[in-house]
Amino acid sequence: MTATRGFGIDIGGSGIKGALVDLTDGTLVGDRVRIDTPRPATPDAVADVVAEVVGRFEWDGPVGITLPAVVKKGVARTAANIDHSWIGRDADTLFAERLGVSVENVAMLNDADAAGMAEMRFGDPVARTGVTALLTFGTGIGSALFLDGKLVPNTEFGHIEIDGHDAEKKAAASAKDNEGLSYPEWAKRVDRYLTVLDSLIRPDLYIAGGGVSKKAEKWVPLLSVETPIIPASLLNNAGIVGAAAAAAEGITH
Ligand code: BGC
Fold it and tell me: Is residue 16 assigned to a domain?
């Protein structure tokens, strides 16, 4: 029988967030706990915070945990916006030890992949058919690619090179904030990014996620890319929800 509740943790550059999730509809059960990401965000420091977050709940089932990195079989393989000491770190073993659970009870996955899994399960049903690419615009740009709802894990489309730059450096939401760009100025960069990405993967649909998707009406209508693009449905909690679903379904990559 599929579990009706799960537990997810989303590790981000500024906060580590966890909550119980109702897996029948993708909503949170009770309050979400958020603790600032420690600096530097080394594996040990992050594991302490994750243990503190989980400890605030009465939960002894499987835990899904996201990282803003490529994660292969529980091991972090990249570290674009997190401490470099994550690279090569066996994250599922680290968290299992710190939480006092078996490693089978920890599902590690990339943050954008988790957000995409949540959209597939609980978001707009139009995204479940054909090729869908979810992009999260935040500190970096995360990506998750699906064919008929099934994930192709660990795509890193935020790092394609555009006009001589790593794409996320120019088109992530952090570039908008750091450089004080208006929505129309930033939308031009996103449009250039999507046009190049479109020439490489040409999905049937893009989903725009990340915090800035809350203001989708200010920039999504300005985009000229041919492929249709819709804002994410789940907003802030997509990573938590997707992580909880992955853990309950026993999905690891
Ligand atoms: C990382 C991805 C991550 C994205 C969003 C990128 O810099 O390479 O793994 O999904 O940021 O956090």
Answer: yes
What is the domain count for the chain?
Answer: 2
Statement to judge: residues 88 and 141 lie in one domain? no
Ligand 1-lining residues (CB < 6 angstroms) = 68-70, 78, 80-81, 110-112, 136, 138, 140, 142, 156, 158, 168
Ligand 1 center to 83 CA (angstroms): 13
Domain shared by 241 and 228, yes or no: no
Its pTM surpasses 0.70: yes
Instruction: Decide if 251 contacts 109 (C-beta within 8 A).
Output: yes
pLDDT digits (tens, 9 = 90+) for 156-212: 999 999 999 999 999 999 999 999 999 999 999 999 999 999 999 999 999 999 999
Centroid of ligand 1 to alpha carbon of 58 (angstroms): 30
